[in-house]
């Protein structure tokens, strides 16, 4: 038995597993050390939260270690008997230490940098500090001021070297349990399995449909974005961002004049008395303006696919020209709920995903509201759960909480009709608890593969494109929701806000271009008639305007951060009737009836989008005929520079 145990311990796979576990322990020790160094900054983290964050952090530790040690995993698992010799294992040890020590030191050193950046270091560090001429002075200063960090770092390296597990002594050779062809076949299969497990570990989980784990996933384990620094580790944030380049500051204007050109901060009257009405925000998957009959009644022979939505808009304060600020679902939530647009990259998937945001749910929670987010997809979908945590939603109701897979559509989520009924029941339950509430629901059925439940296959048939039947079904689900809630007591004291997350597949020429693919319905419905039923053809509306406009309706009285505007204060001084969006690096700025396009530091497009929605007639050669263009260009550049500077410096709050 003793001989069996000795041989088992000498198996290269066991050696690899033990040393990975030792590295995991050192990463966890670094996490605890990081927490203790900044314990005062994390004073609101109790022991249960810390435990949750540490356990969540193991996913990121394992991911980083799998990335770092893929070569070592391969060396340990090669189907050759030489790997069982002391000499071979000594080489593997040297490789292991050589690749792991720099990352362990980086992980510890980031304790110093966190004080300045407020988040874990990403690969932007190298571009941001690449031109520093006094980096040596900075390093020496940090060594003397943060001596305990460097002692911990050196101790971690020494521990890794001393604890390295290699039971094969000089002159010994591992006894493998198989010989001949069986050895090579079995070990080849084990090598393939080890590589597969290593890749899954690096990706953060199993399954081809699962997105590789990203920094924003850390929000799942935290109550505040600033706490993600405890969950994450620096090797992970460096490795997963190394292929990306951070924003380069355009430096259009001096920093001291930037705020006077465009200020992403709104300061309401502090004497306002808040009106705590309920709010229900409905985000409809891919609900383009193109699918509505109301907005396209001038198009010959066009049939709309949203009869209920059209009827609701006629009872609401709506906007003839309303725009998405992004092109994907993950662009929607930062725009709608935190006033942050997409610029070149989705906010949630970029370096800065762990910045601190001032989200609408957090602001309302601080005013005594109950806040919750509903989405019928698996709880890991697109990082929605993590982002909802980051901006202050108290509860998340996903497919797990719905707890009835019989209503699963087989691809994405719970069918819209039963999920909207579930949402209606929860709205009423929450209302009966007596607190004002802010609830958000994100639909799912109007999505590829454009299916409808079997019982509706004859009712909702193909339109011009497959998407149309899915839109009809989603519209019907919305109708059923309002039929369910219209007699509840809380209904008339609620502001309903409707927007799409982005546009869907287009079939009309008017919606194929750079303007049309951002056009979505946005409207406010108040059953008590406090807002007039009106189609506003003057004011431009965008997703980023939803939070400021909602807070205005509530008479909110505290400063807050947003790149959007209060649509209901169009008569106030300084109001600018603008929309900003970005399409893969082409920035578009709308002002009243004109739109300009800007890319690579060059203005290259001017369009009268209301009469030329397909953008066929570029007026750039007649630039001097439009006196508002210089102002538009200045505003757009100021927005871009504010965005870049504030993202890089983690300044996305009103403080």
Q: Would you mind describing this structure in some detail?
A:
The chain is an alpha/beta fold and about 650 residues long. It has 2 domains: about 1-240, no CATH class; about 270-340 and about 350-565, Alkaline Phosphatase, subunit A. The protein contains 21 helices and 16 strands. An 8-stranded mixed beta sheet has the order 6-5-7-2-8-9-3-10, sandwiched between helices. A 4-stranded antiparallel beta sheet has the order 13-14-15-16, with helices on one face. A hairpin with a 2-residue loop joins strand 14 (about 585-590) and strand 15. The chain starts with a helix and ends in a 6-residue tail after the last helix.
Topology:
Elements lengths: L1 H8 L2 H26 L9 H22 L1 H8 L8 H32 L6 H5 L6 H11 L1 H17 L16 H24 L24 H4 L2 H6 L15 H7 L3 E2 L11 E7 L22 H7 L3 E3 L2 E2 L5 H10 L21 H6 L4 E6 L8 H7 L4 E3 L1 H4 L13 H16 L5 E6 L24 H19 L8 E7 L21 E4 L8 E3 L4 E2 L3 H8 L6 E2 L16 E6 L2 E6 L2 E6 L2 E6 L21 H21 L6
Parallel strand pairs: 2-7, 2-8, 3-10, 4-11, 5-6, 5-7
Antiparallel strand pairs: 1-12, 3-9, 8-9, 13-14, 14-15, 15-16
Helix pairs in contact: 2-3, 2-4, 2-5, 2-8, 3-9, 4-9, 5-8, 18-19
């Amino acid at each position: 038995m003793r001989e069996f145990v000795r041989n088992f311990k000498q198996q290269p796979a066991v050696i690899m597993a033990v040393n990975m576990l030792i590295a995991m322990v050192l990463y966890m020790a670094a996490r605890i050390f990081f927490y203790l160094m900044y314990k005062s900054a994390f004073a609101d983290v109790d022991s249960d939260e810390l435990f949750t964050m540490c356990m969540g952090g193991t996913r990121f530790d394992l991911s980083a270690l799998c990335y770092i040690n893929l070569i070592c995993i391969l060396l340990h698992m090669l189907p050759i008997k030489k790997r069982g010799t002391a000499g071979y294992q000594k080489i593997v040890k040297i490789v292991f230490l050589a690749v792991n020590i720099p990352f362990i030191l980086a992980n510890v050193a980031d304790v110093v940098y966190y004080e300045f950046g407020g988040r874990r270091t990403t690969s932007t560090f190298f571009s941001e500090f690449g031109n520093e001429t006094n980096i040596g002075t900075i390093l020496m200063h940090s060594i003397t001021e943060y001596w305990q960090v460097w002692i911990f770092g050196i101790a971690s390296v020494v521990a890794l070297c001393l604890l390295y597990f290699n039971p094969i002594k000089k002159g010994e050779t591992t006894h493998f349990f198989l010989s001949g062809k069986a050895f090579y076949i079995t070990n080849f299969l084990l090598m393939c399995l080890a590589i597969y497990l290593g890749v899954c570990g690096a990706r953060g989980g199993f399954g081809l449909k699962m997105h590789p784990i990203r920094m924003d996933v850390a929000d799942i384990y935290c109550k505040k974005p600033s706490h993600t620094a405890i969950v994450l580790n620096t090797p992970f944030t460096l490795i997963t961002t190394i292929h990306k380049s951070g924003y380069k500051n355009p430096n259009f204007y001096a920093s001291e004049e930037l705020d006077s050109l465009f200020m992403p901060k709104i300061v309401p009257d502090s004497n306002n008395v808040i009106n705590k009405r309920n709010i229900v925000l409905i985000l409809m998957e891919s609900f383009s303006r193109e699918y509505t009959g109301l907005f396209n009644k001038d198009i010959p022979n066009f049939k709309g696919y949203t009869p209920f939505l059209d009827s609701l808009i006629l009872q609401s304060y709506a906007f003839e020209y309303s725009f998405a600020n992004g092109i994907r679902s993950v662009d929607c939530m930062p725009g709608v709920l935190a006033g942050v647009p997409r610029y070149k990259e989705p906010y949630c998937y970029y370096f800065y995903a762990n910045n601190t945001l001032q989200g609408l749910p957090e602001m309302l929670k601080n005013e005594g509201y109950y806040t919750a987010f509903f989405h019928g997809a698996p709880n890991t979908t697109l990082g929605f759960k993590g982002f909802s945590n980051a901006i202050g939603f108290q509860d998340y109701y996903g497919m797990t909480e719905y707890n009835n897979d019989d209503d699963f559509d087989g691809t994405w989520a719970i069918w819209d009709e039963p999920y909207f009924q579930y949402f209606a029941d929860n709205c009423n339950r929450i209302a009966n608890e007596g607190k004002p509430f802010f609830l958000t629901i994100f639909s799912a059925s109007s999505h590829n593969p454009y299916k409808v439940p079997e019982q509706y296959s004859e009712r909702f048939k193909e339109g011009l494109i497959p998407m149309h039947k899915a839109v009809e079904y989603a519209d019907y689900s919305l109708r059923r929701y309002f039929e369910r809630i219209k007699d509840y007591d809380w209904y008339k004291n609620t502001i309903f806000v409707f927007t799409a997350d982005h546009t869907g597949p287009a079939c009309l020429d008017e919606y194929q271009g750079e303007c049309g693919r951002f056009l979505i319905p946005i409207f406010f419905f108040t059953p008590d008639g406090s807002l007039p039923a009106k189609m506003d053809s003057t004011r431009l509306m965008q997703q980023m305007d939803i939070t400021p406009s909602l807070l205005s309706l509530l008479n909110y009285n505290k400063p807050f951060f947003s790149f959007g505007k209060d649509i209901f204060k169009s008569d106030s001084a300084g109001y600018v009737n603008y929309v900003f969006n970005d399409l893969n690096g082409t920035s578009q700025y709308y002002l009243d009836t004109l739109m300009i396009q800007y890319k690579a530091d060059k203005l290259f497009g001017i369009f009268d989008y209301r009469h030329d929605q397909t953008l066929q007639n570029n007026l750039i050669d007649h630039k001097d005929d439009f006196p508002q263009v210089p102002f538009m260009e200045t505003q757009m550049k100021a927005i871009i520079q504010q965005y870049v500077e504030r993202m890089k410096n983690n300044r996305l709050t009103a403080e």
